[in-house]
Amino acid sequence: QSALTQPASVSGSAGQSITISCTGTSSDVGGQNYVSWHQQHPGTAPKVMIYEVTNRPSGVSNRFSGSKSGNTASLTISGLQPEDEADYYCSSYTSNSTPYVFGTGTKVTVL
Amino acid sequence: QVQLVESGGGVVQPGRSLRLSCAASGFTFSTYAMHWVRQAPGEGLEWVAVISYYGNDKYYADSVRGRFTISRDNSKNTLFLQMNSLRPEDTAVYFCARDRTPYDILTGPDYWGQGTLVTVSS
After folding, report:
1. Are B59 and B49 in contact (CB under 8 A)?
2. Residues 6+ apart with CB under 8 A from A33
3. Which stretches in chain B have pLDDT values below 50?
């Protein structure tokens, strides 16, 4: 099972909006709505930011939003802030022999 | 609050075995499926295995199937990962994580532990 495809890096100035894509197939991202996004700062555990494509857990800023079109899910961060600088991973249930998969990861830099 | 604390990591020679534990608290452990996810040094996250809330259903990544075994003890709120025939490429931080939806499976990790480092080297 190959990892979901994400851009290696995305950058933006403070206050701007950025979008991270997560491309899979009809067996994973495109086939159901169990797509999540996780934020990871260096040396720490991941933290879920979005679940089931569009839902934000309690306590996560509403500057984070998720969407999906076909086989590609997206995470948008609005009003970029310095503390948003981190690695971001999408993840999804799959109907393949390995039933769960993460994306390749995207490093977000706040300029 | 939900807490997950991994233990059991360390340095082990190729071909040997190691057993990881994850102590859970702050939620009803017996009603949630649980994951193991790993991260090699400087690399991304790799899903390893999941076990259903009652322990009967288990699923594995192709890369560890036949070598790793996930299990749980609901009476002790503890998740395990038995790793046999270890290889250098198994070197990683191993995280346990709770699956989001009670009485379901593979809905996605929501809470994560801090991880335990496993180094496979001679």
Report:
1. yes
2. A52, A53, A68
3. none
The DSSP symbol for B42 reads: T
Per-residue pLDDT reduced to its tens digit, A10-63 = 999 999 999 999 999 999 999 999 999 999 999 999 999 999 999 999 999 999
Mean pLDDT, range A84-93, rounded to an integer: 97
Nearest to A55 by CA among A39, A29, A78, A34: A34
Band of the pLDDT at A1, cuts 50, 70, 90? low
Q: Are strands B116-120 and B109-112 parallel, antiparallel or unpaired?
A: unpaired
CB contact under 8 A, B47 and A51: no
- Contact of A80 with A86, CB cutoff 8 Å: no
Q: How far apart are alpha carbons B94 and B113 in whole angstroms? A: 9
Q: Residue A53: enclosing H or E segment and its boundaries?
A: none
Residue A89 has pLDDT above 70, yes or no: yes
Contact yes or no for A102 and B44 at CB 8 A: yes
| Residue of B82, B113, B105 lying closest to B33 (CA atoms) | B105
Contacts of A87 in chain B (CB under 8 A): 44
Hey, what are B6's tokens?
Answer: 């991994």
User: Where does residue B90 fall: left (phi above 0), alpha (psi -120 to 50 degrees), or beta otherwise?
Assistant: alpha
